[in-house]
Write a structure and sequence with these properties.
Blueprint lengths: L2 E10 L2 E11 L4 E5 L6 H8 L7 E6 L2 E2 L5 H7 E4 L10 H11 L7 H10 L16 H13 L5 E5 L7 H18 L2 E5 L3 H7 L2 E6 L2 E6 L6
Parallel strand pairs: 3-8, 3-9, 6-7, 7-8
Antiparallel strand pairs: 1-2, 1-4, 4-5, 9-10
Bound molecules: adenosine-5'-triphosphate and magnesium ion (MG).
Length: 222
């Protein structure tokens, strides 16, 4: 799914948070959203799955303005992953079946659950473990699998590895690269892991103080 911001501005609590943004996140590519703290990166992700709407301008998702997308359909197609993986009460299976159950799929999720675990590199035995007992890295894998259970076209990732140690962080970023290649997902990721971002990035969008500073290829991160 191609995502395009057309002259997007956002004012929150009287503060101009985003100003006249024009940029494109191409379909089936990995885009890295880069910039200093307070630049507006998380805010852009929140606009992309309609946790917020722009004050002015239009966000196009596959050429359809975001405001015309039914919110639930949009959030199924555009999944958001944050830095702290929040687990629902119950087992890993309960967590994975949550989204599909919301959409009326109450059948046995066991087989699909195992498939999702494989996709994120977790052993089968995790399926029936209480989700709360996992390490943060394992929770982040379950979090990604839980989002993939909704069969999204887009993954928005807001510093998905900033709560992890270096090794777990590298593993998750490499997993995201593999998932992108296997599933052809459109990804928009905020991360401060420069070296890995450079390897993964097809596109780079740089923000500063709510404005577009630069847009281009991975060489922008060099
Ligand atoms: N509800 C709000 N009301 C007023 N200002 C807000 C609100 N939410 C965010 N902001 C402001 O918007 C700006 C951008 O915030 P945002 O969280 O998008 O930055 P960021 O680039 O994600 O930063 P970080 O790297 O620290 O996560 C900040 O100046 C922040 O204070
Ligand atoms: Mg942020």
């Amino acid at each position: 799914m191609e995502i395009r911001l057309d002259d997007v501005s956002l004012t929150l609590g009287g503060k101009r948070v985003l100003e006249n943004l024009f940029c494109t996140f191409p379909s089936r590519k990995i885009s890295i959203l880069w910039g200093p703290s307070g630049a507006g990166k998380s805010t852009v992700l929140r606009l992309l799955n309609r946790l917020l709407d722009p004050t002015a301008g239009v966000i196009y998702l596959d050429d359809k303005p975001s405001k015309l997308w039914p919110v639930l359909e949009l959030r199924q197609k555009v999944g958001l992953i944050c830095q702290l993986p929040y687990m629902f009460a119950g087992t890993v299976l309960d967590n994975l079946a949550y989204g599909p159950a919301l959409r009326g799929n109450k059948g046995d999720f066991h087989v699909r659950g195992l498939e999702l675990l494989r996709m994120v590199g977790l052993e089968e035995e995790f399926l029936l473990r209480p989700a709360e007992q996992l390490s943060v890295g394992q929770k982040q894998r379950v979090n990604i699998a839980r989002t993939l259970a909704n069969e999204p076209e887009v993954l928005l990732l807001d510093e998905p590895t900033s709560a992890l140690d270096e090794k777990a962080s590298e593993q998750i970023l490499s997993l995201l690269g593999d998932l992108h290649a296997a599933l052809g997902l459109t990804m928009v990721m905020v991360t401060h892991a420069k070296e890995q971002a450079q390897k993964l990035a097809d596109r780079v969008v740089m923000l500063r103080s709510g404005k577009l500073e630069a847009e281009g290829g991975r060489e922008l991160l060099a």
